[in-house]
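Before drawing any conclusions, I needed to go through one protein's amino acid sequence and its backbone structure tokens, quoted below without any editing.
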Amino acid sequence: MWSESLDPSRRCRLVWVRHASPEGEGLFLGQSDVPLSTKGRRQLPCLEQKISQYPAQAVYSSDLRRARATAAAISRSLQVEVKILSGLREIHFGRWQGLSWAEVGKRFPRVAHRWQKGFHRQGIPGGEDFAGFKRRVRSTLIKIVEAHPGECAIVVAHAGVLRVVIATALGMGDRYLFRIAPDYGRLNIIDYFPGGAIVRCVNG
């Protein structure tokens, strides 16, 4: 493959981690600043063990509590300071935040139907524009990659963020994003080179 011939000395490896399970799992949390659940805290030792295989020069995290708590555990394991980036926040779900899909369908039936058919075109009342969210995530991604040529970094973020970065690496269109299902506390490894990216692992 052409990608295997790219100069490894210029590779930036990012280990993307979806935060551990939060309070309110299964709801549209968005930017609701909820903590980890008991289940999520129990996931941390296993995550620390898995992440120890990747000697990282930096750990980055969304500024939301569930991500920061996950990153703090990783940081202790690797003895690397956490750098907080608000650009790694989940998309804001507006008036849907804190609701289940059943509640959304009951309260916002028309918008929910259009969103299900084309979420990247249909906005959520009071929510963040998807195109703007994608620009925010990609801009943050570029900054991290440019800061770590030839190095490895851990990035703790959210499902929406991980969908965007994985889809971007694979060249997938927006409408296919929900074919990617990042699990809580799992590793997603992407190598970035000048002009390209290789997805090494999803939900490891």
In short: Strands lie at 12-18, 58-61, 82-84, 152-157, 187-193, 196-201. The longest strand covers residues 12-18. Helices lie at 38-51, 65-78, 101-107, 109-118, 130-147, 159-170.
